[in-house]
Fold:
Amino acid sequence: MSPTVRTVLGDVEPAALGVCDAHDHLFLRSPVLAGQELDDPVAALTELTAFAALGGAAVVQWTPWGMGGRHDELPGLSRRSKVHVVAATGMHQAKHYDPEDLRKRYDRLAETFVHELTAAPVRAGLIKIAGSFHHLDEHARQVAAAAARAHHATGAPIGVHLEGGTAALDVLDLLCGTHAVAPGSLILGHLHRFPDPRVHVAVARAGAYVAFDGPSRAHHQTDWRLLDSIAALVDAGHQDRILLGGDTVTAAARSTADGPGMPFLLSGLRPRIEREIGGEVATAVLVTNPARAFAADWR
Structure:
């Protein structure tokens, strides 16, 4: 069988994915973001529809297990908006969960991930995990081990939240070295927050995908480096490893509120990439690369 992308409406050929927001959220909740939940299906549909009106065809929701991803809502939103939606399983940093609940679940994480990827009513197509700032704590290592086991059992790609864009090479060492995950199955997120072109090139040279999940929030202040970071990877011969996402994590960040939201990828960033780096690069980043990055030989 050839690789396919697992969407909430079933598996599709990679070429059918189209213009893709490679990292975003339609629903999300966390005690860290109390009062800022993404929990409104109407607002989610409005955001998807606005994205589709600009040519958007697919959104990958990186909301992992236990953070209110509302998988039951996603098929209807996908049908109504005519946008492919890929859901995630996995687990974020420990601060997003109840500590006692975590201790009870560590031994069953891989089983949970595999179930959500292969047997849940609405199946996930991505395993999302997270590192810590400039290191990998014990929680991250346990979740990474479970994600690797689930990857080997299913073929699912793994997306990694890099805190502040850091510890990318540590993640590669752990997942590719210790746990034998093929680099081409890894998507390392938030690297625009750590705009070191040497690290970006090292990740791409290893064969993993470099995800620039912008626009930045105000406290990151790295938007002005984004195109330089993309250009540096292109100049190094790695335009085939770049992904772009919006990472909308609060209701205020949506285009229906005061934020740029999902549409900004296509209304703001795509024209700049086309104008300043080239249309071929824009197509690679938004269409060709996601079709490979999120495809798997499902088992």
